[in-house]
């Protein structure tokens, strides 16, 4: 019991002795080699020092920024997406030419798909080494166009309702009013789907005609 009391008394004395010590103002805290971090005496207590972050006067250029400087839009401006060349290219795609009738836009997209799908089916199809490679590849491309048209029809039925207005925005990002895209309606999507099917089948027929009816000397056939 006496030993425990004696140890407590020694601890109290050591705490009082440490409280009375004051770090010299010229003392540099351990682990910090900076000469500007010096101890400061605070009313007889422990010394304190402050660390301040220096802001550089040189302004850095941000490559990626929020669209129009508004972070709430949820889109970013990058050197790729905001360049004039990319903006011109995207604005000329059928999906973004809102002033064009959805039927014509569907025909344009279908023609490109149908014309380009014949080649892979002819050269990589199961009948590629037979005399029927051209006909089989063209029929396979036409079948894929039909499947894609059915998928577009299902998407339109599930996404749009008859008689409802376009879900596309009527304002640009700068606040300018514009006519909503009629593709985002049930009627407009039906026109786009019909145009895609017609254009796709026409593209397949045109590719087959150029390859095997005119019999032009193409390198790949």
Query: What percent of the residues sit in helical stretches (DSSP H or I)?
Result: 40-55%
User: What is the terminal separation in angstroms?
Assistant: 105 Å
Order of helices and strands: HEEHHHH
The value of Rg in angstroms is 37 Å
The total beta strand count reads 2
Q: Please tally the helical runs, counting DSSP H or I stretches of 4 or more residues.
A: 5
Overall mean pLDDT score?
78
**Low-pLDDT segments:** 20-25
Give the biggest sheet: 2 strands, antiparallel
Task: Look at the helices and sheets and give the structural class.
Answer: mainly alpha
Overall 3D shape:
elongated
Fraction in beta strands: under 5%
Biggest sheet: strand arrangement: 1-2
What would the keywords be for this entry?
2% strand, 221 residues, mainly alpha
Provide structural commentary.
There is one protein chain. It is built from five helices and two strands; from the N terminus they run H-E-E-H-H-H-H. It has 221 residues and is mainly alpha-helical. A two-stranded antiparallel sheet has the order 1-2. It is elongated.
Short description:
Helix content is 47%, strand content 2%. It contains 5 helices and 2 strands.
Sequence-ordered SSE layout with sheet pairings:
Blueprint: H1 2-19, E1 65-66, E2 76-77, H2 84-91, H3 102-124, H4 133-159, H5 186-213
Antiparallel strand pairs: 1-2
């Amino acid at each position: 019991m006496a030993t425990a009391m004696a140890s407590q008394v020694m601890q109290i004395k050591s705490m009082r002795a440490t409280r009375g010590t004051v770090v010299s103002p010229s003392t540099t805290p351990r682990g910090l080699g900076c000469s500007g971090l010096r101890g400061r005496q605070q009313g007889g207590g422990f010394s304190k020092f402050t660390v301040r972050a220096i802001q550089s006067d040189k302004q850095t250029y941000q490559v990626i920024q929020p669209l129009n400087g508004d972070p709430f839009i949820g889109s970013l401006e990058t050197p790729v997406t905001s360049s004039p060349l990319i903006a011109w290219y995207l604005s000329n795609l059928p999906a973004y030419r809102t002033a064009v009738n959805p039927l014509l836009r569907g025909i344009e997209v279908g023609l490109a798909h149908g014309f380009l799908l014949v080649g892979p089916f002819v050269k990589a199809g199961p009948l590629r080494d037979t005399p029927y490679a051209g006909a089989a590849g063209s029929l396979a491309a036409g079948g894929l166009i039909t499947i894609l048209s059915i998928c577009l029809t299902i998407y339109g039925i599930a996404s749009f309702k008859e008689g409802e207005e376009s879900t596309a925005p009527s304002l640009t990002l700068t606040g300018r009013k514009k006519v909503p895209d009629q593709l985002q309606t049930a009627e407009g999507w039906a026109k786009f789907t019909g145009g895609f099917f017609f254009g796709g089948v026409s593209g397949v027929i045109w590719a087959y005609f150029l390859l095997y009816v005119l019999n032009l000397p193409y390198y790949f056939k």
